[in-house]
Amino acid sequence: MKDLKHLIYFEDLLQQANNELVQKGRADGNKAVGYTCYFMPEVLLDLPGCFAVRLRAPGCTSPDVATYYLSSRTCHYARSLMERALEGGYNFLDADMATETCTATTRFQEHMEQKHLDSVEDMRIVDNDDFFVEFTDVPFKKTPNSQAYFAEELEYHVLRPLREHFGIDTSDEALMKAIDLHNEVSNLINEIGDYRKLEKPTITGYEFHVIQLVSLTCPKYLIIDKLRETAEELKTREPDQRWPFRCKVLLAGSENDDPDFTKMIEGCGAEVVCDRYCYGAVESRVPIVVKEGERPIEAIARHYLETSNCPRYMPQDEMRARKQHLADLAKAYNADGIIVVSNKFCEYWSYERVIDSFVMPRDFGIPVCSIEKEYINSASGQLRTRFQAFVESLEIKKIQEGNK
Questions:
Q1: For the chain, which residues make up each domain, given as ranges?
Q2: 241-402: which CATH number, 3.40.1280.10, 3.40.50.10170, 3.30.70.330, 3.40.50.11900?
Q3: pLDDT at 379
Q4: Can you list the alpha helix ranges (DSSP code H) found in 251-313?
Q5: Tell me, what DSSP letter sits at residue 159?
Q6: What is the pLDDT, as a whole number, of residue 226?
Q7: In this predicted structure, what is the pLDDT of residue 121?
Q8: In what order do the strands lie in the sheet with 368-373?
């Protein structure tokens, strides 16, 4: 297929957290606000005067120093973020909005807090006098009471500090502007992603992963024009005459901000046609609907609780709904199988991965490849062998079904 016009530029933006557009956003007088979890509504961090940066640690090779602070039994994602912070990689941040969700990333963000104590002066990880960390509690249920509680948490722990520290306008009018921007970006990403539902998709999983990550890690007002151009470009993009893949897969699981991992899977012959993982687009790019009589902050709280498919929701009905959701996505995107990935030592996703690998074939007849990996894919050879074997098993299944 013809190369996408902005793909190389997008790839360059992902080489570091403090990329060209983040620097431009700060030069424009906006505040850079970091976060790590879907439950921190990025739309609130994109209010006029600030912009959201979902934290990554691109190029991190070994979190040795961070392991001293976080132990070797926490996930590599949290340790890699800590390592990058210790290296000074997040000195551009003006604030970090944390959530009481994942224990490992919560501990990392606790370390980022300015301590203002002589005994821990060496823990000034972010070299910015005005930098602060604020924590928001997230309920474990999706009931109306939970939504009301979450809205209050967001009011007190996100809107209040943004207003008091930076003078950000947090009025309902400002929130509606942020929602409009979020929805436009979401609609563009969804339009781009819909080409993956074609018999011969005109965008690869790797390309889409890059585009989605850029929309999470750059100021949206600076990237949206290029997203519009990409969406327009795809309207006339022609697929290769000979489809270069052997099957289609849905990629599900824990945090995944490495497009090279998607590229590895596709290099084994399986096109990644849908992303149901943290940092993916299935949940994070659902437009926000403000119902009649609903305040914007109430709509935002409801939206993020209702759309999340995070395994921290443990009731049986929620777990069953997640399996049905996976099956529905596999059907919508014509996926032949599912690759379920969990980061090593990720408690939530370790349980979910085991359940998925058992329930999806039994109840829905969908083959599953179950993988545990680290944030740094040092065992790429072993992973490639697993993916190649899975691709071959999907081909054999197709042949067997065709002979019936």
A1: 7-175, 241-402
A2: 3.40.50.11900
A3: 60
A4: 259-267, 281-284, 296-307
A5: I
A6: 97
A7: 58
A8: 270-277, 247-253, 337-343, 368-373
Integer-rounded Cα Rg, in Å, for the chain is: 21
d(CA 337, CA 339): 7
**Which of 363, 366, 317 has its CA nearest to residue 340?**
366
Tokens coding 376: 């740094």
β-sheet bridge partners, residue 247:
270
- 311: Cα separation from own chain's centroid: 15
Q: Which stretches in the chain have pLDDT values below 70?
A: 115-122, 378-379, 403-404
pTM, to two decimals: 0.94
Please answer whether residues 240 and 217 qualify as being in contact, where contact means their C-beta atoms are separated by less than 8 angstroms.
no
Architecture of the domain made up of 7-175: 3-Layer(aba) Sandwich (3.40)
- How many CB atoms neighbour CB 365 within 10 A? 9
Sequence-distant (6+) residues with CB within 8 A of 181 are: 43, 46, 220, 221, 224
- Same CATH topology for 7-175 and 241-402? yes
pLDDT score at 143 = 92
State the pLDDT at residue 115: 66
